[in-house]
Amino acid sequence: MYLKDMVLDVDGHPGGPITVICNSWVHSKFDNPEKRVFFTSKSYLPSQTPSGLKKYRETELESLRGNGEGERKKSDRIYDYDTYNDIGDPDSSADLKRPVLGGSKEFPYPRRCRTGRAPCKTDPASESSSSSVYVPRDEKFSEIKNVTFSATTVYSVLHAVIPSLETAILDSRLGFPFFTAIDKLFNEGVKVPELKAKKGILRNILPRLVKALKDLEEDVLAFETPALFLRDKFAWDRDEEFSRQTLAGTNPYTLKVVTEWPLKSSLDPEIYGPQESSITTELIECEIRGVITIKEAIKQKKLFVLDYHDTLLPYVNKVREIDGTTLYGSRTLFILTPESTLRPLAIELTRPPSETKPLWRKVYTPGHDSTACWLWRLAKCHVLAHDSGIHQLVSHWLRTHCCTEPYIIATNRQLSAMHPIYRLLLPHFRYTMEINALAREALINAGGIIESSFSPGKYCVELSSVAYKDWRFDHEALPADLISRGLAEKDPTAPHGLKLAIEDYPFANDGLALWDRLKQWVSDYVNYYYPNLAQIQSDHELQSWWTEIRTKGHADKKDEPWWPKLETPDDLIGILTTMIWVASGHHAAVNFGQYHYAGYFPNRPTIARVNIPDEDPTETQWKMFLDKPEELMLMTYPSQIQATKVMAVLDVLSNHSPDEEYLGEKMEPSWASDSIIAAAYERFTGRLKELERIIDDRNANPELRNRNGAGVVPYELLKPLSEPGVTGKGTRDVKK
């Protein structure tokens, strides 16, 4: 039974009826004879707990921790840790075996919620698969809410739409014959006969995607035209847009300033070839056209790089053994213009030496003849496929979903529901674990949508483990992230205390404004409950919570020296602001623009299926490229089934349902019951409304060319509020 609240009408109580907010599933006594406890909205630190409640506070936490044994039932509310040993399915096929992520130096990883399922028969280190992955009962979507809630729409796409698509498009390698065939996805849609049997339910849940043909009895998957393509059909092919999206697109987290020259790899040269990049000073200064020297450009922080060389190069030869995909290590170099925009200078693609082939690498530049121009276009295709993979696997999945789950588990295991910090974090954590479980079922699982549609194939999630080796909690704070990439430096005279290397950096400008507002709200909240150091240090629940996050939730990082200490209110403010930023601002920036920018997949292909044509070509292959370069580009792009599967998923991930709750929109009952906290929250809400106006003003400013101009999609990803639909705005928390 889902219990929303209880109203106790107590005779003689001076405040009238007492309302206890529950918002919880209550199990049957036949599933568990243990009684449930619910607390009023008044928050207490452990030391302030009324004596009559102390026992209930402690026993409730013990119940949530469980004993670490047995398989979890649907009705359980137990939070515990396990490694990611359930991505593979070796009992179904040896090809679906995947390494355990977490618990080893080779594959470190955050922990997930333990389910207790039996081990696989063929691989005892892996957990057996299940059609329904356990999450604690109160982490699951409440059926009381509207059917368009995010978890329902994601589930429907993963378990109904995608299988139907796979039936409709029989040839998994079939590409698009012409660019006009891609346009038909928006004009005519994809006929999916199998949807007919499910159309009544699916059309209600997915009104954007599933539409009935008026004159036929068939259903189609009809894609809405993405914002980028709607505004400018040719933007995807332009260098200016390619550059702009590193600052205002869906992955603004990977651009770095160049600090040394020549660019160098840290990989073993005996295995991967020379460490020094083949991008030379002469080549770049020719592209810069004498405006500035390399030395001066680096000194003035005008040279930037997307560097996926060391991340991808160790996987190139392994990925090339997979049918229908290819990979390179890549570096892409940009120069900052006086208008605060970026201009691409060069792309380096590298294939490491193997047992059968020597090292191959080449540098491409924007060409001045037809062949060079087409090679440049194709080099960009490969880089965009690399960036799409890093975006989805690292910037999105790893950093916002995967790394957040340990915070949720520890919060429920160590902080009582009466604890003020539990109540501060709760709205940012709701339903995240369910979405993560759905991802393990059908998105990041072996043979799932990510593996079948992104360049690294079966190594996709393994790559996110490699990226986790460089993950640092202290760098997840937005100011620290910008500083670590050389995109900002501390300056007390600058807005937000940071001077940006690129003045017109939409993500950073809007993000820092949101960060400041979040931090002020968290500061008001924390300083109210913890007016001095002693209360932080003596709060055993809080200290246990932070210790468990470091030593259990992120156990593979437990000995790192960069973990913040938790000794003062300022320490706590920094930790909490970082967690809330990741769940809200960071997630919004990398998630809600996905359909805007990747819905028209030539702008952001998820996979490159064939090699660039001048890599060891035969005479026949080179002639085909010269005769029909457009055909080769279409062969490089995702196949029809790959493209449509990803488009369907991106549509639903980018979508806001009518009943969504946005940052600063709804006051929690525990905040409303305290006049000081309620007033602080009202100030926070006012500041967020002010941020809406600031972002609108910035988007209207013609001097800010990375967010304003002919055909340019305005940067609204960090606007706090949104109307329903795929809007490219709305800062809600990690629920997709």
UniProtKB/TrEMBL annotation:
It comes from the Eukaryota. Residues 84-132 are annotated as: Disordered. It is found in: Plastid, Chloroplast. Residues 43-736 form the Lipoxygenase domain. Residues 1-40 form the PLAT domain. GO terms for biological process: fatty acid biosynthetic process; lipid oxidation; oxylipin biosynthetic process. Its EC number is 1.13.11.-. InterPro entries: LipOase (IPR000907), LipOase_C (IPR013819), LipOase_C_sf (IPR036226), LipOase_CS (IPR020834), LipOase_Fe_BS (IPR020833), LipOase_plant (IPR001246), Lipoxygenase_dom_3 (IPR027433), PLAT/LH2_dom (IPR001024). Belongs to the lipoxygenase family. Plant lipoxygenase may be involved in a number of diverse aspects of plant physiology including growth and development, pest resistance, and senescence or responses to wounding. This is Lipoxygenase.
